[in-house]
Amino acid sequence: MKSIRSFLGVLLLLSACATGAARAADLSLPVMLVATDVLAGSAFEEAVLVAAPLPQGGHAGFIVNRPTDMKLETLFPEHAPSRKVVDPVYLGGPVLSEAIVAVARRAPDGAGDVFQIMPGLVAVLDAGSVDRVIETTPNAARYFAGLMVWVPGELEAQISMGAWNVRPADADTVLPAPQS
């Protein structure tokens, strides 16, 4: 009887772990991705990403732990408000790597192309709106050169082959909360 209870306990524990893993890998919600050893030696070694589902399928996101040595004021010397940005530009990913994207808690009024990563976190994509973020709240955003894009099924395949550990999305990991 004791061995049956132990066996049932192990089954319940395994079931709970599997349910937690399935919940963590729910790609219909935004997720954090942490590179595994499968990506050792690649450009994504030790990378931490945020990824969110796209309305038309697939996912988009950013590498959140790759600050560069470059500042916005160096990239845009003619744009005086860029000098106010304290943090460096981050390498967001290989897609559109020459474009600057602002990730902020909210989009500026009248923003054009905006992608909601998760509640309280948006990616401002068009140049005019990024300029407005820089001009109005320069240090309330993080600026990324490029982004990550996965076609439908691609991220799922990468997770299945063990490339990424999946964690719940966390806005404060992507954009630290302002200090009061």
Q: Please tell me the CATH architecture by its name.
A: 3-Layer(aba) Sandwich
Q: Which descriptor suits the 3D outline?
A: globular
Task: Count the beta strands.
Answer: 9
Give a short account of the largest sheet.
Answer: 9 strands, mixed
Walk me through this protein's architecture.
This protein is α+β, with helices and mostly antiparallel strands and 180 residues long. It has a single domain (26-174), classed as 3-Layer(aba) Sandwich (VC0467-like), CATH 3.40.1740.10. Helices cover 27% and strands 29% of the residues. It has helices at 2-24, 72-75, 127-136, 154-160, 171-174, and strands at residues 31-35, 48-53, 59-63, 90-91, 95-104, 114-118, 121-124, 141-150, 164-168. Strands 1, 2, 3, 4, 5, 6, 7, 8 and 9 form a nine-stranded mixed β-sheet that branches. The longest helix has 23 residues, at 2-24.
Question: Topology, please?
Answer:
Elements: H1 2-24, E1 31-35, E2 48-53, E3 59-63, H2 72-75, E4 90-91, E5 95-104, E6 114-118, E7 121-124, H3 127-136, E8 141-150, H4 154-160, E9 164-168, H5 171-174
Parallel strand pairs: 4-8
Antiparallel strand pairs: 1-2, 1-9, 2-3, 3-8, 5-7, 5-8, 6-7
